[in-house]
Specification:
With 167 residues, the protein is mainly α. The chain has a single domain, classed as Rossmann fold, CATH 3.40.50. Helices cover 40% and strands 8% of the residues. It contains seven helices and three strands; from the N terminus they run ααβαβαααβα. It has helices at residues 21-28, 35-50, 66-76, 100-106, 109-119, 127-133, 158-163, and strands spanning 60-64, 90-94, 146-149. It has a three-stranded parallel sheet, with helices on one face. The longest helix is centred in the N-terminal third of the chain and has 16 residues, at 35-50. It is globular and about 45 Å long. The model is unreliable at 1-5, 7-19 and 157-167 (pLDDT under 50).
């Protein structure tokens, strides 16, 4: 069996080492589904082409939850300013978001303002952005082998159910 390298969607760009989480969060404002997808594609391409550290024919992308959304966005609708011709060998999305409208409808009111900031407005304000950035809107463009798991390790309500548990 050959060697393999694993790279997961980063929580921040390699060029952002030393920046605070707040700076990273600010960078995502209005850009969720664009900036982190671009980072993953550019990192993979840089590691394989410019630095020649990994085999481009064996690059997979994997992520869970918001990272799963990044995976789905990366293989269905990469930002137009990313290099053309780059292709993932395979992808795994673990309980990733595929429909931002549904996420907005299911998001707790307390967290909805955060989502609005990531997208650039509420669904009512910018429905076209929600549709454009939703991987479900671009499923016909997916030609990367994809493994999807919709089973979350943290099902809704799980933390609350654990409150009454005594070990």
């Amino acid at each position: 069996m050959g060697e393999s390298t694993r790279r997961f969607p980063p929580s921040r760009n390699l060029s952002e080492v030393g920046r605070t989480d707040r700076q990273h969060s600010d960078r995502l404002q209005g850009q969720w589904g664009i900036s982190e997808v671009r980072d993953c594609i550019l990192a993979a391409q840089n590691l394989s082409t410019s630095l020649n550290l990994i085999d481009q024919s064996r690059i997979f992308i994997r992520g869970g939850s918001s990272g799963g959304y990044t995976v789905l966005a990366a293989i269905s609708n990469p930002p137009p300013d990313t290099p053309s011709g780059f292709k993932w060998t395979g992808a795994t999305s673990l309980y990733g978001v595929s429909d931002l409208r549904m996420l907005a409808e299911d998001t707790h009111k307390f967290e909805s303002k955060y989502l609005n900031g990531l997208i650039g407005g509420s669904y009512e304000e910018v429905p076209e952005v929600y549709k454009e950035r939703s991987p479900i809107s671009h499923v016909d463009k997916i030609d990367t082998p994809l493994l999807v798991s919709s089973i979350s390790p943290r099902p809704p309500g799980q933390p609350s159910r654990n409150l009454g548990r005594r070990d």
